[in-house]
């Protein structure tokens, strides 16, 4: 069956209708400043190493947020006093136009972007002199080379802009919601296509390529992050991106495939994970584990679903604790964990199987402002430390600690979904998981004092399930939530969908 | 008709069988040094801007050439005296293994790569101390931070390695030829798929996505360069990579589509261009222009085809001059250029329509060592200067002038295909073109003294053809050449191929 037989209506590149001026005004208001300017420099074209091969261009997210410009070499100024936004365009020499084409004219740029004035780069100095700003607010990562030639360094503030920018980006405007809804729908469709097309004998890389093609032909030419297409035990490796294994029936006829992937369109992305059997039919063990994860997402104690509790005011930490409690109950119920529930919870033994956060904000970046990693903050042993350091490692790579001082202290501060209630117009993931990760299990079951809590024989039986994650991208609304993800996720729905292309022997 | 109905046999990721040790020995021989070591640092994982989004990893080409390693954070040492090659592997902490998976063991690396010893990064200093090299040869672009901690700076030579490396990379080994042949075949297949699938109403971006999918599902998960999918007049923009226009029949029912794209597999790429009518049928004007370009490639004066003259010993400059002569004859024949052929050639007026080189080397980089740009080296007027500067601009971006001194002098030196004969085992492109580029034509026809040579009315008639380029990647053999490109390119063959999916009204 051809991958595009179940075609999603072709969208093509959408016309931008992002009111970036509104973003500027919002940031200004959050900063509480009446004068000064924002200055940002957009991403440049990058060549690979010592070659002339261009890297596919992707605008820096904050620059896109304020300008909507997805072309290289632009700069931007927003004047707080006059509310005038200036897009500073690069000058493209004649010789380059022969090779790269005519750039947009001033009129075309004014029509295309939600800015007030176009200025060419040679006039940046004159513009800044004319405005004569009291302060220049930049991000701590902004290249200030051009602006620092015109403005004394003591006028440049690298601290105030970022928190306001992040706060603004956390609560989405209607046009942002519409973009993310669209890209989540088309990415859901790509997940459905993979469910139909997966077969033993294929390679993970081909499925990744199919996912990207399904997104691209529906208008999402970028991926929000490197896709994870992980079969069998690789599903337990959280950031597995090798995607190069063959799906071999002989290795494991009950093999699960975990696909964590989302398209990106106009710089706005999504984040979705589905896990399903390559054969089209869950084994008994796989179904047990899968339904635990589904329960973690859907049906919690006292019939209170996590998803049903998503609404403004809900504390995310509460949700995380709830999910861990469900996981604990279920692992005791099926016998992998043995002992008193409260004792096991206190020891944090569930973290042998589930060692990441319940979710994060999604937007211009997949781990959007508001929390790229949600670490568990209490430590009882070495593995906690190990998990903590892991989180920290990734957070540091993400640069979230810049100019904030002590790192330990900032893990919490940088992931404030932990200490503030949900609000309408947040877009977040809900992504419980359960993994049989070799490194983690070896560490946990290696502590002699903890071994009595694990049924090692039963653990061995479930180990071949590999790992399960179910991840939806959802919008918090005034009265609850809208699940933007429309790919099936119950065992029955998945098996029904796969039945047509996976006849039972 | 589904894009993959004409399926190419699925290849999947190939096992590496690149004898990189041979590459090291060859580089050593070309350097003529008996002692010292080569030190290279491979590419690192890169995160996008101030986020934790990983950029798709691509090894630095020279590092891949000597090691075959396509993973981040490796280093490499080759000892000239003992001929022992050392792969320096990164140490992956336990915490990271939970997230990224277990790295290869020493045994696995020794099996996977053609190296003699594996050393972990902490042992680099001890290794270098043990070897105690007289010189450390690095590329001028190598990050020497790790090695310079162990070796005094005056032992580090940044000049000798590069020329030898480039010379070695220019003449391909059998396993390299096999990789490029394979990727050229599967990319040719992807071009054929696009010919079948192109239709009015589609967007250039969808066709790009289809090309990438066709490559990826046949095992080439990378593109050798950003694809150019250029409809109508955009075909005249040489490095058009926006690829976002709709193919609108109302704009131009005779619209041509130029697709310049090639897959990449195991870091080896290819470079192919095909140009064809969206409708499936060439208009009279399009056919005229197309056949001129085909003649430039195939059937030159006195029945001497360029392709037929490709063999060891042939001077590339001779080929370029031949092609320009054919172009001149043909443009006079159809009446766009008016006047005496020798006079027109002397004035270089063909460059109004054809302003790039006839070809370049292909390998680990698409514009491989041996010439990324082949500029015309004689200047008669401002536009020559403009073209020259353009070439220079792109060359400079490619970094080919590093530590070589005067730029003007080096345009020729850096593109030595111009001053040396072809040799067996070179892989090069042959890519004549003919373009109606607004910037170029405006410049050329703007010189009052040149206007008499142009039939402006006729020029107007042909202008809507946009541009045509036909580009094959070919291997120079002992006795001639092998065209690795297998996509059709005559008008008849293209129309026959497209007929099934483009019925005539």
UniProtKB/TrEMBL annotation, chains A, B:
Cofactor(s) listed: Mn(2+)
Q: What is the lineage of its organism?
A: Eukaryota, Fungi, Fungi incertae sedis, Mucoromycota, Mucoromycotina
Q: Which domain of life is it from?
A: Eukaryota
CDD domains attached to this UniProt entry = Prolidase (cd01087)
Entry's family note: Belongs to the peptidase M24B family.
Which Pfam family is one of this chain's hits?
AMP_N
Question: What GO molecular function terms would the record report?
Answer: manganese ion binding; metalloaminopeptidase activity
Q: What is this protein called?
A: Aminopeptidase P N-terminal domain-containing protein
Specify the Aminopeptidase P N-terminal domain's residue ranges.
Answer: 18-149
User: Mind telling me which PROSITE patterns this protein's record contains?
Assistant: PROLINE_PEPTIDASE
Entry keyword set: Hydrolase, Manganese, Metal-binding
Q: Which GO terms describe its biological process?
A: proteolysis
């Amino acid at each position: 069956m051809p991958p595009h037989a179940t075609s999603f209506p072709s969208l093509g590149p959408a016309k931008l209708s992002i009111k970036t001026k509104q973003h500027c005004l919002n940031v200004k208001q959050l900063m509480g400043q009446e004068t000064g300017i924002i200055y940002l420099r957009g991403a440049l074209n990058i060549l690979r190493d010592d070659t002339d091969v261009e890297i596919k261009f992707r605008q820096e997210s904050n620059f896109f947020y304020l300008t909507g410009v997805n072309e290289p070499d632009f700069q931007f100024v927003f004047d707080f006093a006059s509310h005038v936004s200036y897009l500073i365009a690069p000058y493209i020499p004649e010789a380059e136009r022969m090779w790269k084409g005519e750039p947009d004219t001033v009129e075309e740029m004014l029509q295309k972007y939600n800015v007030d004035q176009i200025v060419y780069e040679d006039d940046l100095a004159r513009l800044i002199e004319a405005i004569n700003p009291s302060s220049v607010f930049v991000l701590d990562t902004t290249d200030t080379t051009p602006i620092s030639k015109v403005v004394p360094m003591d006028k440049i503030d690298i601290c105030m802009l970022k928190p306001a920018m992040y706060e603004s980006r956390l609560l989405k405007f209607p046009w942002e919601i519409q973009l993310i809804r669209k890209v989540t729908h088309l990415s859901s469709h790509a997940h459905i296509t993979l469910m139909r097309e997966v077969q033993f004998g294929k390679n993970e890389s081909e499925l990744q390529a199919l996912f990207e093609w399904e997104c691209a032909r529906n208008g999402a030419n970028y991926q929000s992050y490197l896709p994870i297409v992980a079969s069998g035990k690789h599903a337990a490796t959280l950031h597995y991106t090798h995607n190069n294994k063959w799906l071999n029936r002989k290795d494991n006829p009950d093999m699960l495939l975990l696909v964590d992937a989302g398209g990106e369109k106009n710089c706005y992305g999504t984040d979705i994970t589905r896990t399903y059997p390559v054969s089209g039919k869950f084994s008994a063990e796989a179904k047990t584990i899968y339904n635990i994860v589904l329960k973690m997402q859907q049906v919690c104690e006292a019939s209170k679903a996590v998803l049903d509790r998503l609404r403004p005011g809900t504390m995310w930490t509460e949700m995380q604790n709830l999910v861990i409690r469900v996981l604990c109950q279920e692992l005791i119920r099926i016998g992998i964990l043995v002992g008193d529930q409260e004792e096991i919870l206190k020891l944090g033994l569930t973290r042998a199987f589930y060692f990441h956060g319940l979710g994060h904000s999604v937007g211009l970046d997949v781990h959007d402002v508001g929390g790229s990693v949600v670490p568990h903050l209490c430590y009882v042993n070495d593995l906690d430390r190990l998990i903590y350091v892991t989180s920290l490692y990734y957070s540091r790579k993400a640069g979230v600690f810049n100019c904030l001082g002590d790192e330990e202290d900032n893990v919490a501060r940088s992931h404030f979904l932990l200490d503030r209630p949900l609000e309408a117009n947040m877009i977040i993931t809900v992504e419980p998981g359960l993994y049989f990760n070799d490194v983690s299990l070896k560490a946990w079951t290696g502590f002699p004092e903890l071994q009595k809590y694990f049924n090692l024989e039963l653990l061995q039986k479930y180990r071949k399930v590999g790992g399960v994650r179910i991840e939806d991208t959802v919008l918090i609304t005034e009265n609850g939530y809208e699940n933007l993800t429309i790919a099936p996720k119950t065992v029955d729905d998945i098996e029904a969908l796969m039945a047509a292309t996976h006849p039972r022997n």
